[in-house]
Amino acid sequence: MKIKTHLPFPGIFLLLLLGILLLACQPKESPRYLFFLHNRFLEDHELEDEHPQHGRTQYEEVKAAFSDAGLTVISEKRPPNTDARTYATAVVQQIDSLLELGIPADHITVVGTSKGGYIAQYVSTLAANPQLRFVFIGSFYSDDVEQIPEINYCGNILTIYERSDPSGVSAIRRKETSNLPITRFEEIELNTGLGHGFLFKPLPEWIVPTIDWAKAEE
């Protein structure tokens, strides 16, 4: 079932309110916000369920890694069969709310793994804000440019993919075909040998560069 595009997802809305309260307690410096969008497996399964190849999606551990780094994390477990573009529209609404509060766009990072990475790509397209930051992890197939032509990268883009993962390759082609402003673009190729399972865990190989991307000074 698709969610109405003009309403935010309740879970994200509550987390955003919490972030606003944290902002009120820290008037001297704007916090860094990180939207985390998890993989498809967690949509269809409970937190403790084990993938037959990759094990449990360590969702809480990933969020904790970002929070421990001083980032204000906004995230929720999505319902099954979430429509990527519809969900991205709701995320853009939350980003707009932060911007209206005076949060600098470069203090907002959207991070997505696997299907969450595709949602993040839609956020990049729909927000069309070159100052926002994005990290797309294990979320680009070689034929995506032809299969999903409506996606255009915009903003400060970091892509991370695993060499042994058939579900994620270099996204250079998407960069080259995007017609929105790309302020920065970097890629990291990992070689963990874990296939798509690398993004089920808060591995330092992708957690650390993601944190660095979100916290880097311009």
Offer a concise description of the structure.
By secondary structure, the chain is of the alpha/beta class. Helices cover 38% and strands 18% of the residues.
Please explain how this structure is put together.
By secondary structure, the protein is of the alpha/beta class. The chain is 38% helix and 18% strand. It has 8 helices and 8 strands; from the N terminus they run H-E-H-E-E-H-E-H-E-H-E-H-E-H-E-H. It has a 6-stranded parallel β-sheet with strand order 4-1-5-6-7-8, with helices on both faces. A two-stranded antiparallel sheet has the order 2-3. The radius of gyration is 16 Å and the shape is globular. The N terminus is likely disordered.
General shape: globular
CATH architecture assignment name: 3-Layer(aba) Sandwich
Number of strands: 8
The rounded distance between the terminal residues' Cα atoms is 40 Å
Number of domains: 1
Global Rg: 16 Å
- Average pLDDT: 89
The side-by-side strand order for the widest beta sheet comes to 4-1-5-6-7-8
Judged by helices, strands and strand pairing, the structural class is alpha/beta
Report the CATH superfamily.
Answer: Alpha/Beta hydrolase fold, catalytic domain
What is the CATH class?
Alpha Beta
Total helical elements: 8
Strand content: 15-25%
Largest sheet: 6 strands, parallel
What do we call the CATH topology? Rossmann fold
How would you spell out the order of helices and strands?
HEHEEHEHEHEHEHEH
Which regions have little confidence, pLDDT < 50, spanning 5+ residues?
1-8
Helix amount: 25-40%
